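Researcher: Good morning. I'm working through a list of sequences from a screen, and I'd like to move beyond sequence-only analysis. For each chain I'm collecting a predicted structure so we can compare shapes side by side. This is the next one on the list. No need for commentary yet; just the structure.
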Amino acid sequence: MKILFLIAFIHLLLQCTGKPLSRDDCHQQPLEEIKREIAGYSDIVKAIINLAVYGDAQNRSYERLARFVDTIGHRLSGSRNLELAIKYMFNALQEDGLENVNLEPVKVPHWERGEESALMLAPRNYSIAILGLGSSIATPPEGITAEVLVVTSFDELHKRAQDAKGKIVVYNQPFVGYGETVKYRSQGAVEAGKVGAVASLIRSITPFSINSPHTGWQNYQSDVPKIPTACISVEDAEMMARISSRGTRIVVTLKMGAKTYSYSVSYNTVAEIVGSKYPEQVVLVSGHLDSWDVGQGAMDDGGGAFISWEALSLIKDLGLRPKRTLRLVLWTAEEQGGVGAEQYYQLHKVNISNFDIVMESDAGTFMPMGLGFTGSCKARAILKEIMQLLQPINVTNIYEEGSETDTDYWVRDGVPGASLHDDISKYFWFHHTQGDTMTVQNPSEMNLCAAVWTVVSYIIADMEEMLPR
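Model: Good morning. Structure tokens for this chain:
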């Protein structure tokens, strides 16, 4: 009994050393004391802002990103381009003088769209712009020629199940928000397959279009027949809806040469600034390096990846070394559902108590407005104080929801999470399209995003205590 008591006492003592063994510290600074500590970073914040926004590092993240995407292009999971991108970044991070630059292997999906086309044969000849959806099967070489059934919802589809058999289902669902509407992209083929359709064409998940189809990942179910599936533009979905509403028959020939290969080996790309006092504790900043096979992947998620790199560069350039390790992770295969991040989590979750906060930027790097945050009330109060130091660039707001696809594994287990909250009013105009190029990016806005990302990650990494769980 005495031995058990002694072990419990030692365990309790260790929890009070600044190296927590669990989510709850037995000793935490009073909030007022933490506020005074944060206020002491004012000069460092000014130095970060001056360097990133006005100084020698002005436009650096933009220029680095432009060079990268102009050299490599898009970077689909399993592709040669993604391999080249990872090698490029591995060398670039080493040349930048960052520490512990390494590649952590990951098995990733490998799907290729091949040649694809859709031709309306009746009531007139017309070429429909399409982008096949990730993991879609191919059509037969001669294609699929069938009549079209246009619906506006899954409910309407199932009410008209008898009409759908043997047809190409066209979804003309309204855009009510990405989170709600994206289910038509991810589940459209399955729901159409349930009622005997031979293919599905889905109105792109966007509020605005210039005849631009949007791609993305979709999911089959093992107990439902697999059918080919692609996205079409808003304009073509609405046109076919109008034609159908007049009682006119529509016939389409769909050809898709998609192929799914065995899983490939890819890598999460990692670099660090090692902490000076608690090197085993980690503040993680991240973005994903992969993209879709259209455009340049500059917005999704080149910008997020490169402001995360920039955060470490700015801290290094200022000669700063936080108490905790600042770790950059450039995820692989995010677009296929966070594949690289899930494997990273499985590998590193044994040390979950040492992860202070996980941060990912994956919703554009437009004009920043603040941070999304998920965590305890006290952690939110601490972050709010940190954000007040960003008043010189007028980015001080805290919003709900701080997890992204790649960090959600950690946030669900109680690790505080932060995401960049910026003006995404035009984000879904270009999302997963040929339009995702450097033309979308704005160097001044990237400077501001990099400043926000750097200030928050550095202060959290350098504070005496970890954020409370």
